[in-house]
Design a protein that fits this description.
CATH topology of the largest domain: ABC transporter transmembrane region fold
Keywords: ATP-binding, Coiled coil, Hydrolase, Membrane, Nucleotide-binding, Peroxisome, Translocase, Transmembrane, Transmembrane helix, Transport
Membrane topology: Multi-pass membrane protein
Largest sheet: 6 strands, mixed
Subcellular location: Endomembrane system; Peroxisome
CATH architecture of the largest domain: Up-down Bundle
Number of helices: 22
Number of strands: 10
CATH superfamily of the largest domain: ABC transporter type 1, transmembrane domain
GO biological process, one term: fatty acid beta-oxidation
Strand content: 5-15%
Structural class: alpha/beta
InterPro entries: AAA+_ATPase (IPR003593), ABC1_TM_dom (IPR011527), ABC1_TM_sf (IPR036640), ABC_transporter-like_ATP-bd (IPR003439), ABC_transporter-like_CS (IPR017871), ABC_transporter_sub-D (IPR050835), P-loop_NTPase (IPR027417)
Radius of gyration: 40 Å
Shape: elongated
Length: 694
């Protein structure tokens, strides 16, 4: 039996080099397969209990990432592709340097054991020499990775902003539709500013955190197998893979945690921004206590999730370090001791050679263990990247969806869902016409079933009706903010009409910028307009003194808070006179100015030949309009010519009758008092007329 064992040992020793090569080949193939298995997606995406898809590394994640990569790296000769190639070169160079340093480390210790001072100093000199390329490589890796993250963020931000606000030379109202017509994304500012940055940083880091560790595992273990034999490497691989399987099974869904944290951060930011946007109204209504409660709730939700996320990460980090650093380290030390105790391939090596081999092998083993640990850790980073990818992809999907006219809005109980399945026709024309167009709110409430009216140039239209009847909704359809779900809409191109609301928008910039918005100084100069021309425009709104009062045309401040409501409305009318469009939509835009200033402005509108579509309840404006569109608030309307004098006469008669009707209760009360007095008179007959003579 012992003879057979001895023969087997001889046969094994004779064929050991071939067996070693076979084992190493199998190890490389197994490492690549394991790396693929670590990052491949399951066949079916898991579902949450509420029916929503879990954020994880699955087919949907790779599909989303593939689409984003086409945006981030548009071609192989792009800046991003060159940075990626440079990054790969430095990663490979760092691995080569690490292998050399591991061997050099063993030589330094060996020279110490052998007491060879010259050899020791020479090795120290080599150590210092290799520090130059090593330091440069490590610094450049960090630099190139940061540059790559910035390049990714720039490319992706431009793509999103082109969808959000439109490319140069084209208009996009997706920013409005995203906030008002769609419920899928409530924190677009958070997604554009923070989530894109987090996604770009994670994507730039994930390449170095996955490609290099896989390469390191192969190269370090290959070199290690040559030093200690492939048998120990196989044993280590079995242990590592079994413990790695345990770690993967116990790894929580870091992608879902990252996505939820971004969402809660966006909710908190949106709550803060609402306070800034409605600060005056909240202050007047003394609503700070309620708003603080809402902020506390949003922050507490974020805080609770962050605390839970930290606990999960801490527990996983302890388990991971215990396995990767300590368990693998102990087994690795045993494997490094194999050449020392069993003298495999060592022949008659002395103490120095054995020490050098042990230190080198231990350094290689620690590097290989660290690399494999980074492969496992990169799965967690990939999970977080899946969360950021889901958020950014959702933004892109929603932007493309709203740009194509598809909206997902929470509908009211009385919504007519059949209207959302169709679209009307929109044509460009010199005239404005609605033909059988339904006025539908974003929540699906039908305000007017079929609206039909026609306005030609010069036919100023007055629109009246109670609140919520469809006046502003009509303008939103005309401006393209809301879709036309049926019928025909004929309107001029966007550059030929403008909209002036009751609360005008004042941008950041100079006083000049407020009048010429959305033009800049260069566009104003190209148009041939000077500051003196702007001053003459301000004369038509009785606002010339504002230039000297505010410090000149180049004065810059927060105009939305420094100007009164009347000044803002006059600035908006001056903006109308600067642009001189064919049509103007005026929505209660003179409610804060005097009748004298209002007459001055509308007289100048008539001189410029601008056709008006005005929402106002001021009788003083009736004489400036030829047509009237009157809603009754019940889904009905009247479109007819406007006889201002007749309507004013009817208005005066109506006011007179209303005043008399208001006196009726007082007269009835006085009559009852007189009847009570008369009943006290002797001989009073209630059937006879009451005589009040004394």
């Amino acid at each position: 039996m012992s003879k057979e064992s001895g023969n087997a040992s001889v046969v094994y020793t004779r064929h050991r080099p071939a067996i070693q090569r076979l084992l190493i080949t199998c190890f490389v193939a197994y490492t690549l397969r394991t790396s693929y298995t670590t990052f491949r997606y399951p066949a079916r995406p898991k579902q949450k209990k509420d029916g929503k898809e879990r954020v994880q590394i699955d087919a949907l994640f790779y599909s989303r990432l593939s689409r984003l990569l086409k945006i981030l790296i548009p071609s192989w000769n792009s800046k991003e592709a060159l940075l990626l190639a440079m990054h790969s070169s430095f990663l490979l160079l760092r691995t080569v340097i690490s292998l050399y340093v591991a061997t050099l480390d063993g030589r330094i210790v060996s020279s110490l054991v052998r007491a060879q001072p010259k050899q020791f100093l020479l090795n120290i000199a080599k150590w210092m020499a290799v520090a130059v390329p090593a330091t440069y490589t490590n610094s450049m890796l960090s630099y190139v990775q940061s540059k790559l993250a910035i390049a990714y963020r720039t490319r992706l931000t431009r793509e999103v902003m082109d969808l959000y606000l439109g490319k140069e030379g084209e208009s996009s109202q997706a920013f409005y539709q995203l906030a008002n017509l769609d419920d899928r994304t409530s924190d677009a500012d958070q997604l554009i500013t923070l989530d894109i940055q987090q996604f770009s940083t994670a994507l730039a880091a994930i390449y170095g955190n996955t490609a290099k560790p896989v390469l390191d595992v192969i190269l370090y273990n290959y070199q290690l197998s040559r030093n200690v034999g492939a048998e120990g490497l196989v044993l280590l691989t079995v242990l590592v893979q079994s413990s790695a399987a345990l770690l993967r099974a116990l790894t929580p869904s870091f992608g879902a945690l990252a996505a939820q944290e971004s969402q809660l951060s966006g909710t908190l930011r949106t709550t803060h921004s609402r306070i800034l946007a409605w600060a005056e109204e909240i202050a007047f209504l003394s609503g700070e206590t309620l708003e603080k409660l809402k902020l506390d709730r949003a922050y507490f939700s974020l805080l609770t999730h962050a605390a839970h996320s930290l606990q999960v990460r801490a527990a996983h980090a302890m388990l991971e370090e215990g396995v990767v650093k300590w368990l693998w380290g102990a087994v690795g030390m045993c494997i490094c001791a194999i050449p020392v105790f069993f003298n495999l391939g060592a022949g008659g090596r002395g103490m120095g050679e054995r020490t050098e081999g042990f230190v080198t092998n231990r350094r290689l083993l620690l590097s290989a263990s660290d690399a494999f640990g980074r492969v496992l850790y990169s799965y967690k980073e990939l999970s977080e990247l899946a969360g950021y990818t889901a958020r950014v992809s959702q933004l892109l999907d929603t932007l493309h969806s709203v740009r194509s006219g598809h909206f997902e809005k929470r509908l009211s109980a009385t919504a007519d869902t059949s209207l959302f399945e169709q679209r009307g026709t929109v044509e460009e024309s010199d005239e404005i016409e609605f033909r059988d167009v339904p006025i539908v709110s974003p929540a699906g409430e039908v305000l007017v079933r079929k609206l039909t009216f026609h306005v030609k140039p010069g036919q100023h239209l007055l629109i009246v009706g109670p609140n919520g009847c469809g006046k502003s909704s009509t303008f939103r359809i005309l401006g393209g903010l809301w879709p036309a779900y049926a019928g025909l809409v004929r309107k001029p191109p966007p550059g030929e009409f403008t909209y002036i609301p009751q609360r005008p928008y004042l941008s950041l910039g100079t006083l000049r910028d407020q009048v010429i918005y959305p033009h800049g100084k260069e566009e104003m100069d190209a148009k041939g307009v000077t500051d003196d021309d702007l001053l003459s425009i301000l004369a038509h709104v009785d606002l010339e003194p504002i230039v000297a009062r505010e410090g000149g045309w180049d004065a810059a401040r927060d105009w939305s808070t420094s100007l009164s409501g009347g000044d803002k409305q006059r600035i908006a009318m001056a903006r109308l006179f600067y642009h001189k469009p064919k049509y103007a939509i005026l929505d209660e835009c003179t409610s804060s100015v005097t009748l004298e200033v209002e007459k001055l402005m509308f007289d100048h509108v008539a001189e410029l030949g601008i056709t008006l579509l005005t929402v106002s309840h001021r009788p003083s404006l009736w004489k400036y309009h030829k047509m009237i569109l009157q809603f009754d608030g019940q889904g009905n309307y009247i479109f007819t010519e406007l006889d201002a004098e007749k309507r004013l006469a009817l208005q005066e008669e109506k006011q007179t009758l209303e005043a008399k009707l208001e006196e009726v209760p007082k007269m009835r009360a006085r009559l009852e008092e007189l009847k009570a007095v008369a009943r006290d008179r002797v001989g009073y007959n209630p059937q006879q007329p009451l005589e009040l003579g004394l």
